[in-house]
Amino acid sequence: MPAVAQQPRELVLNRVREIPPLPLVVRELMSVMRKPESSADDITRVLSADQALAGKILRLVNSSFYGMPGHVSTISQAVVILGHAALRSLATTLSVVDSFGSELPAERRQVFWQHALATAAGAEVLARELGLPEPEEAFVAGLLHDIGHLILAIALPEECEAATAAGIIGDPEQERTIIGMDHCRAGRLVLQHWKLPNSLIECVRLHHGEGACLNATSPMLTVVALADRLSRLQGDTGESPAVTADVVALSTALRRDPAAIIGLLPTITARFDEARAVLGTADLDLDWTSESFGMFPPNGLPVVVLANDAKRTQWLERLAERHGYEPADPRQWLSEGPHRTPVLVICDVESISAEQMTRLEPLLANSGARVIVPQPGDPRRIPASWRAQCGTLPMVFSVGELVL
Asked: Which CATH class name applies to 301-403?
């Protein structure tokens, strides 16, 4: 493992200074759209001042995605079709992608932008569900939340490779130890360089801060944090699976039951697919769709969740059900004795007492079931007799992770 750079902050700051400023048109759009009296003419005037950006917007509006190929020739028409807030999100997205489009290898870019778009889509859908005043701003916050990973990978590549190998990417404290700076702080420096609003900077700086994210006074931050965790359902996020552990607490902080959050997943996936069209317009060479992540789910295979926490039980059962498994009654399964049906068992060692684990040990060891433990889970709590048949999963898992 390479030694931490002597002056990581200076290295990051030097690379931040090399990033092109966010176009004036984006900052003006944000300013204009915060004024209640702003009109479609104001938006058209601002966007028309940047011909390159205007051209990309027109190319997107005329793409097959919007079903209007060749019919939209002016920004004023685009404003009518897309709406003010959607255009602001679109302009910001295109400008950010332009700033980092070729800085990393294609595979790293793909993982990063996949995760960024999945988080943006989830944040916007959650914000609409909660009735937040600016769901499009939640989209932008989700898009930018991990921008610090990009600048760290560019400024401190060896340290980031070491952190990736150690499996600690996404844990700010561990990142500071190995890299010398965490991605939240690096992202804050980028957004300050771009002179973006404090509401966005807060989401970038604090989306891994448990205390801040669970504080009801900042719902957009909590929304972005939850969307960040949910994005694992769209594939690799580039971060440690352990960072999804607080997904149930975040749902509770938003006063939503786990089942309600899981019920939004089809809408989030649809919004994610819509957002992919933006990256195609931004000239990034990415080749993926939401269908490319995971495998076809099994039909109705039984799953037993063993847990003492009602909300964690609900989350694990509903998510497994979403992936094609059929939740089974754990009491009935445990009472079946040696002839019990082999199933997938999710054993939540976080909420099960040591005494209960002792009672479960012989039952699970002789059950023939595949046992998985949600992270984080202390491996010392797993009895040695069935440790060999035990795997681990994050609290947010894809169907591919369940099937493998």
From this structure: alpha beta
